[in-house]
């Protein structure tokens, strides 16, 4: 039996009850196979907001519910509001308890319907009743239908433990952040914190379907990670390492690029043991294809450079589709420009955009964070000495051509960077003393072997932006930073100096840049060519960054407070590893998985970040150590 009928609920009874006029425009749809008694339909159509008559059997329980509701809504509010609500509500509740009106004939009739309805529902547990506006619907076979739906593995997947506690904890974390960031005021925070919550409908709860035993949640058709630019030199390394690292973490990844044949070849060579690696076709010049790609990803690893030319459309699309983003850029201008343009949009979308998640610039940026954590006092300044060396006599290109392109383009637009910095930080930091002075162009250091010169990479810029973030958001004293690169022999330094002069001079003109791009091997002494570097050569490449920090044993209460004594403490730390491209790919993957697993430890609810700002309070350093990138304290001395 299935019927759709308009019913006046006992018109003869309620004609003289004006508050119940709405009962004359009710509709009932019976989609079950059970004949539902008229009295049951009458009561069900009253709806969930209808207040049932109170009698001696339910008076006390009703009163307790009133009190619970009042207390829940005033919890956490200021004491004056709590006292005001209690003082005004409790006398009313007391009068209700001692002098509530006697039952009318209509009240008695409704209670009789209630008893009949309870008996009917108990005898027909498969019937589900729902109300929508002035329509009441009865459905049967609810449990069996729900079981059928939840058993569809294409839609639902098993959850091993009760998700409700984590969901509640995560929701409360969001509320704390919103209040801290002044998105909501104190009263709104208290109201939301104490309001009734409903577990997301994506979960089929065992509370409803006890015999199913397991929780289920809706299967997400988004891949955990998508690697864009997977056919490039760095992208191939990322695919190779993602195959094992994602497998270990039970994460699903896909790859994206322009040509399917090339993507197929990458899968066959670097991910053959993975059962299914989805391939997504995406072209940087096709906005719709980028949208389709980012819609498939929870986190995107962008390996498609130079980023000045190809990075912005990807970031813009990630924000539009609410996809987290990491890349391996070392282009200072690109990074600052992206923060200027997209920081607010990323915050609004709840998306984390983290640049420089490769050898540029995580070892240096997190190395500074690591040194600050180990300093046990207040750090004033830090000098970073980088060193790269080979443990083989073999010759051949070591650096990918795309890196050469990015370097030339960055040098060509170096004058634009200062204007961008000023725009990003219109208010300068206070002066901190003693000021860290630059060392001479060529010098020797007591923490590195060889000849050192200032290194004009993005590492210093990124580290300073992280320090500015810590000052602005956590009121921590920002460290002054200088970066140098060390060559073990004077002859090596001489070769690099000559190559550097050619780069600086020729990159200023279009003609010079064309020469540099056309003959990379000539101007780099064979370190760079149009051919891909030999992976075997990279196994013999080693790098280290030594951090020389100075400061005080005592930390003052405010970051701008000045110490009266000169610095009395020094700490030396080191970050080191092998095979730069291998390490870059591992760092990028770990950065992505950290966003995936530790969003509660990343500041805010989205935005454009440096690695140190994003990951300084996460476990990323510990994960890097497990993957053979060493972070170690060399010495700590006090005067």
Give me some keywords for this one.
Rossmann fold; 639 residues; six-stranded mixed sheet; 18% strand; disordered N terminus; alpha/beta
Task: Outline the secondary-structure elements.
Elements: E1 3-7, H1 11-14, E2 26-30, H2 38-44, H3 59-74, H4 79-98, H5 105-123, E3 128-132, E4 135-139, H6 142-150, E5 156-159, H7 164-180, H8 186-194, E6 215-218, E7 223-228, H9 233-248, E8 253-257, H10 260-270, E9 279-281, H11 287-295, E10 297-302, H12 307-310, H13 312-320, E11 324-327, H14 332-349, E12 352-354, H15 362-375, E13 378-390, H16 401-412, H17 414-424, E14 451-454, H18 459-474, E15 480-487, H19 490-506, H20 510-518, H21 520-523, H22 535-538, E16 541-552, E17 569-578, H23 580-597, E18 607-609, H24 611-615, H25 620-626, E19 630-638
Parallel strand pairs: 2-4, 7-8, 7-10, 8-9, 10-11, 11-12, 12-18, 13-15
Antiparallel strand pairs: 1-2, 3-4, 5-6, 13-16, 14-15, 16-17, 17-19
Helix pairs in contact: 2-5, 3-4, 7-8, 9-10, 9-23, 11-13, 13-14, 14-17, 15-18
